[in-house]
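Today's session is about reading a structure prediction critically. Students often jump straight to the picture, but the first step is always the sequence itself: look for stretches that repeat, for charged clusters, for runs of hydrophobic residues. Only then move on to the predicted structure, which in these notes is written as discrete structure tokens rather than atom positions. Here is the chain we will use throughout the hour.
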Amino acid sequence: MFDFTGKRVVVCGGSKGIGRSAALGFAKAGAAVSICARGAEALAATRAELGPQGHAAPCDLGDAAQIARYIAEAEAALGGIDVLVNNASGFGMADTEEGWAASLNVDVLATTRASRAALPALKAARGCIVNISSISGYRPSVRGPAYAAVKALLINYTQSQAATLAPDGVRVNGVAPGSIEFPGGVWEQRRDSHPELYRRTLASIPFGRFGTPEEVANVILFLASPLAGWITGHTVVVDGGQMLS
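Below is the predicted structure for this chain, in token form.
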């Protein structure tokens, strides 16, 4: 469906779930792909799946110095950066110091820091950024107020980035997934730890199932492709109609 031959793609938070599926999708479409994450085992496994054009490095996306180091390494390994995908989340849910710190540090600051570090390369390539938010950013949340607030911030920041970088030929868009289930992911865990929440969430999705990482990755690839060449500043909801309920 897509052809990214010759393109250089960096996926921050690319070892599992949506990030992994996006990285593998870009690689399958011919791109050279770099991923980072904290977990060494999942990072190594996904790196092996990326093929000979793949690159991976450990990185704590809550640490500014590590982000700067990783982006520089990725740019050197790939020979530039055409696409940056900011996918990581700290999953700070509660309205506590710890909840806010986790969400702000990873969901927000990792996005701004990685974007700034990659910007010279992105401007040179007239590339694009895709920020991963959530449908939680569009509505209030009693269960996860910190998470919802920072995802709303990312939607707004995506618009500001797009307006700022348009004169440089850099497009910026976002994706807001609904509830996505995959092995080892949050919803698989909640199926056992919070079965009532799992059932209630499942019942809220008109199609009667959770989404898959590949369904979100397809939209990420579209937004990074020439097919979306006249789209910037928008966040696309990928939720199977979950927000309709």
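Discussion point for the tutorial: The chain has a mean pLDDT of 96.
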